[in-house]
Specification:
298 residues; alpha/beta; TIM Barrel; eight-stranded parallel barrel; two-stranded antiparallel sheet; 10 strands
């Protein structure tokens, strides 16, 4: 598995990471998570990303791989209380959330703690940034980051306070390629990409009931990429390799509850970036079709 320098942090991260949302939201069993993560770590995974609000994801990860703590970089997020719909942005709430994550993950430090999609207004107040800086000084996290998109992400990058950015980049979400990735590169920040395969939204032949898929489903319906209407395996491969091809991307986190899926995706990644022509064809289609309201999905 290829590893890339994670900005100026000194970490070398696997280009394919593991996202912990699905194991929490989809009720994965402890046995399944244990098999899946240990297999992936043996095959070259070294980035695991989760969050306080992903149901019991942190507990599942802590129970499974805390004994292998030196084998991987552990990232989590804070700013919510139990649910993504319940914000928790005071300094005391941030501190309590980080301490809770450490207990759940059965570790005494994180490699990266991230603010989880807080607004630009919240960032500008400074309290949440100071809370993360305090956690870093206390040794609770080696580095601090911002997870989000759009104007808030621009502010976070320009503040100079953060070591890393987590943002959305995929065939249906390309705002960051021009808006924030160049800024992150200038600051030498590490970049984590979430939703690198656009939630595979095109697998649904009709618009799903779950609103989580709606923005990408609608966009792909308008973009009409020719490669998403045929072989599903090939379409997922092209989508994943498109994200790999974007400039200044260091690791892409893909969530799954299926043992063996990480290896399958790793084999796709091993084929490398798309050719310049393939990449530009997708970029040009986006530039032709994307509306002004096609903003990054936090």
């Amino acid at each position: 598995m290829e590893k890339r320098e994670f900005g100026k942090t000194g970490m070398k991260v696997s280009v394919l990471g593991f996202g912990g949302a699905e194991i929490g939201f989809e009720g994965a069993s402890q046995a399944n998570v244990e098999r899946m993560l240990n297999e992936a770590l043996d095959q070259g995974l070294n980035v695991i990303d989760t969050a306080e609000c992903y149901v019991n994801s942190e507990e599942l990860i802590g129970n499974t791989v805390s004994k292998r703590r030196k084998d991987f970089y552990l990232f989590s997020k804070c700013g919510h209380k139990g649910s993504y719909d319940v914000p928790a942005w005071t300094a005391a709430e941030i501190e309590a959330s980080i301490d809770q994550s450490l207990r759940r993950l059965k570790t005494d430090y994180l490699d990266l703690i991230q603010l989880h999609s807080c607004s630009e207004e919240t960032l500008r107040k400074g309290e949440v940034i100071e809370a993360l800086q305090k956690a870093k000084l206390a040794g609770k996290s080696r580095f601090i980051g911002y997870s989000g998109d759009g104007a808030a992400a621009v502010y976070a990058i320009n503040s100079g306070a953060f070591d890393a950015l987590q943002t959305s980049v995929n065939i249906a979400d390309q705002e960051a390629i021009e808006l924030t990735l160049p800024l992150a590169q200038k600051k030498e920040m590490g970049v984590i990409v979430k939703r690198p395969v656009a939630n595979v939204s095109w697998r649904h032949k009709t618009k799903p009931e779950n609103p989580y898929y709606h923005a990408y489903w609608d966009r792909l319906n308008d973009l009409k990429y020719d490669f998403i209407n045929g072989n599903m395996q090939l379409s997922v491969e092209k989508a994943l390799r498109f994200t790999l091809s974007a400039p200044w991307v260091h690791t892409m986190i893909v969530g799954t509850t299926k043992p063996g899926r990480w290896r399958e995706n790793a084999e796709v990644i091993a084929r490398g970036a798309l050719s310049k022509d393939e990449y530009e064809t997708i970029r040009n289609k986006w530039k032709q079709v994307a509306g002004a309201d096609w903003i990054g999905q936090s």
